């Protein structure tokens, strides 16, 4: 999504805008929230329309905001072909926002997950257990 949308997304979560005046792209694979397993695919749908403070480390180049989301393991959710299309907003939880300048070095969600330090994984798992 565009940089200007993230404040609202963080406050209210991702929304299924399919078929509304807020839909930015066609629903080629059906109605729902579209999630990719490859960050480069997601970055193709971001828009850098918001001016960045000129002294920011992210000024002077293409900057993207991309979310790392968790999807509920629901029996009716289909495997990505080529993307996840999640019809229910409550099945998607934004866990991290990443500010990316240029092209990322790690493009696959599986590769990125394997690069997370073990201590951080344990801390996240503990936190998730406490909230569920």
From TrEMBL:
SUPFAM superfamilies: ADP-ribosylation (SSF56399). InterPro entries: ARTD_PARP (IPR051838). Keywords: Glycosyltransferase, NAD, Nucleotidyltransferase, Transferase. One of its GO terms (molecular function) is glycosyltransferase activity. This is PARP catalytic domain-containing protein. It comes from Amorphochlora amoebiformis.
């Amino acid at each position: 999504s565009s940089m200007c949308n993230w404040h609202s997304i963080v406050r209210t979560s991702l929304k299924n805008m399919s078929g509304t005046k807020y839909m930015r792209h066609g629903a080629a694979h059906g109605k729902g929230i579209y999630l990719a397993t490859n960050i480069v695919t997601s970055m193709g749908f971001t828009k850098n329309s918001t001016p960045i403070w000129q002294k920011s480390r992210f000024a002077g180049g293409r900057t993207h905001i991309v979310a790392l989301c968790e999807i509920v393991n629901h029996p009716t959710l289909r495997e990505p072909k080529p993307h996840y299309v999640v019809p229910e907003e409550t099945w998607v939880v934004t866990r991290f926002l990443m500010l990316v300048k240029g092209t990322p070095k790690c493009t696959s969600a599986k590769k990125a997950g394997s690069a997370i330090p073990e201590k951080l994984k344990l801390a996240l798992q503990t936190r998730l257990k406490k909230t569920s």
